[in-house]
TrEMBL record:
<dbReference type="GO" id="GO:0000049">
    <property type="term" value="F:tRNA binding"/>
</dbReference>
<protein>
    <submittedName>
        <fullName>GL21904</fullName>
    </submittedName>
</protein>
<dbReference type="GO" id="GO:0006611">
    <property type="term" value="P:protein export from nucleus"/>
</dbReference>
<dbReference type="Pfam" id="PF05670">
    <property type="entry name" value="NFACT-R_1"/>
</dbReference>
<dbReference type="InterPro" id="IPR051608">
    <property type="entry name" value="RQC_Subunit_NEMF"/>
</dbReference>
<dbReference type="Pfam" id="PF05833">
    <property type="entry name" value="NFACT_N"/>
</dbReference>
<feature type="compositionally biased region" description="Basic residues">
    <location>
        <begin position="786"/>
        <end position="797"/>
    </location>
</feature>
<feature type="compositionally biased region" description="Basic and acidic residues">
    <location>
        <begin position="753"/>
        <end position="774"/>
    </location>
</feature>
<feature type="domain" description="NFACT protein C-terminal">
    <location>
        <begin position="867"/>
        <end position="957"/>
    </location>
</feature>
<dbReference type="Pfam" id="PF11923">
    <property type="entry name" value="NFACT-C"/>
</dbReference>
<feature type="coiled-coil region">
    <location>
        <begin position="465"/>
        <end position="492"/>
    </location>
</feature>
<dbReference type="InterPro" id="IPR021846">
    <property type="entry name" value="NFACT-C"/>
</dbReference>
<keyword id="KW-0963">Cytoplasm</keyword>
<dbReference type="GO" id="GO:1990116">
    <property type="term" value="P:ribosome-associated ubiquitin-dependent protein catabolic process"/>
</dbReference>
<dbReference type="GO" id="GO:1902167">
    <property type="term" value="P:positive regulation of intrinsic apoptotic signaling pathway in response to DNA damage by p53 class mediator"/>
</dbReference>
<feature type="coiled-coil region">
    <location>
        <begin position="317"/>
        <end position="354"/>
    </location>
</feature>
<dbReference type="GO" id="GO:1990112">
    <property type="term" value="C:RQC complex"/>
</dbReference>
Amino acid sequence: MKTRFSTYDIICGVAELQKLVGWRVNQIYDIDNKTYLFRLQGNGAWPKNVAPSGFSMKLRKHLKNKRLEKISQLGVDRIVDFQFGSGDAAYHVLLELYDRGNLILTDFELTTLYILRPHTEGENIRFAVREKYPIERAKHQDDEFSLDHLADLLEKAPPGVHLRQILMPVLNCGPAVVEHVLLLHDLENRVMPQGTTSNVDGPEQPLKKAQNSKKQRKERNLQNAKSEVKVFDMVNDLPTLKMAVKRALNLIKDGNNGESKGYIIHVKEEKPIEDGKIEYFLRNIEFQPFLFAQFKDNEFSMFESFLEAVDEFYSTQESQKIDMKTLQQEREALKKLSNVKKDHAKRLEELTKVQDDDKKKAELITSNQSLVDNAIRAVQSAIASQLTWPDIHELVKEAQTNGDVVASSIKQLKLEINHISLILSDPYVSQNEKDCEDLTVVDVDLALSAWANARRYYDLKRSAAQKEQKTVDASQKALKSAERKTQQTLKEVRTISNIVKARKVFWFEKFYWFISSENFLVIGGRDAQQNELIVKRYMRPKDIYVHAEIQGASSVVIRNTTGEDIPPKTLVEAGSMAISYSVAWDAKVVTNSYWVTSDQVSKTAPTGEYLATGSFMIRGKKNFLPSCHLTMGLSLLFKLEESFVARHLGERKVRSIDDAPFENSFKQNDLTDMLLNEVNEDLETQQVVSIPEEDHRNDNSDFPNTEVKIEHDTGRITVKPNSLNVEDKPITDEETSIILAGPSRKKQQNAKKNKENKARSSHPEIKLSDKGSLDAEPSISSQVKRGQKGKIKKMKSKYKDQDDEEREIRMMILNSSGKGKVCINTSKDVAKSVSANEEEKPKKIVVPNPKNQMELDENDDMPAGVDMDILNSLTGQPIEGDELLFAIPVVAPYQALQHYKFKVKLTPGTGKRGKAAKLALNIFAKEKTCNNRERDLLKSIKEESLARNIPGKVKISAPQLQKLKK
């Protein structure tokens, strides 16, 4: 396959691009690290990177809104010069299309401002920033060359060199043009005289340098390779050669007109399909601006312009590679089937041959019955005489020498197995026919007579016939099974090929990444360079930066595409990711992570020095997150077809107490279960119940200051002493730890009042604030649902020490969405509604909001909605009837994967990542709920893509894992 531009390609391409001169640069993008897109006064449809690279930003700085003034080729070299602007404000973009390629931005004096691939040539020529581009090194046309000098050039050429090798350096038009003109004038495979015989194979060696590869040379010169190498005749061939060179120069002149057509040359590849039929797959091998003679027998596609053909060639290159890989797999599958068929056919042929041989031997013994019996008796007599085996051999040889007929028929004595080999022929065949017939050697058992030996061979023939029949029956089943497996393999290969073609690699997959349980994209750097890239190019004003103060911790960014506050659950998950991708994973230690806003992250130290790659300065307060376990999960996200996206909206969202999945996740915890039941009752009855406290409660007098940590994703609550006095330092927006203070002074005051009230009351009861509280009690009880009275009684006992403030803060933490806070009033004065108590609520522990949504998209090429569209099209919970395009492996904190269909738990262990990935795929495929489409998508996933995001050596946990391993 052609991979590089020739000089003639560049001549035609530059001529065609002249129509763009005078257009202004609208914008510059990078499609990947080797492809850059210049948009000139129009909208482009090419896919682009989410954020521009450093090179793109440099190009934008100097070239945006500049006019394209000139496009030229440097000499006859494969270098294209794009000049933007004029005079002292001119900038040049030099595109090198040889070797590994390069792109250089220079000023009007050709001083390098930016270079894609800095390098050095020799000792003096350096390609680097602030170095002048050596324009003089470009190849130029030899002005002294003419047709008259052609004879001198040929005379100076070394002997045995191919004619095309002589012409290519002086014509500077590429090998395709030279081959074309030599073929048209019947000068192909000409070599220079003197030493031609010894150098017949030699010219092929320099020819390899002029072409891209051995395979390409074979395809392009198949016809030439079959012809003989001929010696160039200076007298007869020189005039013809001059005509060929003149034709080549005319082709170059025509290429400069900018009117070249485009051609893609194809090679037919057989593509077997079902029922033994054959289709042809056209594989692209060349793009050319002219239909050259060497391609006249090939299939080709014609385009209106050369650059259109180039665009089509490279646009379909990846698809062609996938098709060729699929074709190769299909051929291997069919080759296996063919080998099975050949093996069975060979076995049947051998069995048939054995039957024919046994039948023939039996018939020969029968026809030569007296001869066989005489031979058996003679040998038996010698054995009965107690002669040694060597003496018997000597006796047989002596008899053969004397012309004995019986002895002459003995070919070999096999006395160790009590057999002799006889040479037998058909006695009823004439002498002339007998001379033409091959004699047959038959083994005869000395313990049996001639008839018995014949019967033995007939038995062997019948046994072989039975074996043949069994083999035929087994072969039919085996062939059907092999054909079925082959068809299944072909179907799978084609299905996987279609999946791979549909597979779109998203921009965030080059990083560590996952989608939080509340639908926020979280990305982290794999190394220092990616950490630098994430902060500089992908972190926006409303995003959150998460990190951990431990070696190797990844810089994690939460992409805020909603414009709202980042919920605590997403912050905790991002913190878990930052810790897991650090030395903490292998060391199996747990530490704390923290988050800050994007404006707190700086690249400059307080001293003014610039920090190393991947290092950043955090200004202001670090908001530490609660400790978390080193528990990650491996799962799959499925890309939905656009029309099925709406069915899955809201799968990952900020959960509130009204959401059933959120409620169910707390069922295992008694405290949260009671709180949620109580809230549901309040919502249904719209009543606020005041629960008095009893005097035997535990007021935590030993721990006057206590921290209560609530993990809202698991419902776990941890209480520990704290030396900090909450009254002296109340919770504010700047406080970021998800921590609540224990019994406050207000609570102690309420406890004191309750004790006084207790003295005046002999038994606890539910009271209302007005005079008719006792009369109103039955009405409240009547509104409580059946079975709820016992729960209310338990809540009275369990939460008797809880005051208003503590109740509100706990409900605030449980309700991650920030929706309506519902509280139980434990004071005995006046019952307050939820809305009336809003002014007394503490502030939420959230990230400050930017002023408006526009701040999110400022300095970012991709609109915020693009991220959201991508995330909404990915689901971890496919349902029946969904059209799934492809599957993406994802490694995330395990709590973010709770509702995914396929998942395994990863914890620090000793297992290798590749083996763990393979085991995970096997577990997913063996799931009972896994349908055929999902299995096909699983087969298209490469193990390396699954393993690359696993933090390190791991232990996999999954239901019935040991059974699956067995």
